[in-house]
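--- STAGE predict ---
source: upstream dedup step, 1 unique chain passed
mode: sequence only
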Amino acid sequence: MELKPKSYIVLFTLFFAVLIGIQGYQLYNTYQLKQRDIFATVKSKLGKLHDNDKLFDDDLMSKDIARDYYIKLVKHEITAEKLKELYHANAHKTSQRLTRYVDSLFQPLGMDVILKKEILGIYFKNLEKQIAAGPITVYITNGTFRQPVELSSSEWITEKTETQKVKDSIQSREILYTFFVHRKTSFEVTNLNWILFKELTSLLLSTLFILAAFLWLFYRTIQNLRKQQKQITVLHDVVDNISHELKTPIATLKIAAKTLRKSTDESIITVIERQVNRLEQTIDPLNENLQTTDQPPVTRAELQAIFDDFQLTNPTITFQLSPLPDGKLCLSPNDATTLFQNLMNNAVKYGATWINIFFEDQKGKLSVYIQDNGYGMEESELPYIFDKFYRIQKDNVHDTKGLGIGLFLVKKIVDRYHGQLSVTSIPNVGTTFKIQLPHALVPSSEI
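--- STAGE serialize ---
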């Protein structure tokens, strides 16, 4: 079953969506893999952070000192806010040193890493209650956290036994203080997106190239399909036109043949010859074997005869003709006839009421201009008007009789003489064809 262009577009859209999904999934997985690799590298290097005693001794609150402060907090000798202030002061004191250390680990790798450790809560077991709520910063490097990643999470248990005298007694008792401290260490690679972008640039570019190439191939395919469909339509029209053109001479020849069976009449033979010529004129344009350039250039008299014949058969057309070139037009008589007749007949066929033809001599080349005030053509049509069998389809213009090869033959002739052909047209204003041909190298006596 043959698919229509719309079906191709729908199928392409589905395939393209699937391709985007596959490429997007591949990019996402690669992104996640690269991110995990970076995080694994950071965690590996930060795993031995506490082995570096120089960063923490005498600067951060040691376990024994921290426990004593927790006991004071339970005894209400200090407040939770005071404890937080002590932690904050110690964290600020070691921030610069910790930052330099972390930078020394990761800057050689092109990473900007920031680090912090927090206490999420301090709990007193005896009272089974929280005595200080987090987060309380234990240490932190310079930088602003936006999307921190957890490095580790732990629970620190510390205890101490104190001997206290019983009130109004000489006796004493021992009290066990046990504390649970929930802690979390986090980090962030602040230039993570830039690192990942550099890592994925080649993959991203190749993905975009594949998608762009896929789009371009589809666009070219649809263009070719539409062009072929248009050519098929045009070819059908040409066949219909040829069939229409052949009906009359064939019918006439049938009648003439029947008449000849009864009697021989010179007038009947003339009719047969005329109809055969008509058939020949209809079929000849379909033959691409054009005349060669071996013939001598057209003379001024022969050129004038072409224009006179046209004027005679089109008396209602206002025809303007500049002085004819003196032995400089390189076209053979047959080619000149085909070229000018096709261009002038096209102008009349498509609504022209006047035609202006003039010549310009330009440095070894002869420029020929054929202007008319016909219907004109849209700019989008101009690239195709010299294609074989192409006919403009707009309003009722397509109903004009013709095979769609007149301009094709004109282009063939100009190309064979190594000339240049261009056209400008404005709808409802008119059309101008410009033909540049090399000078004919013939003596003026042949003109």
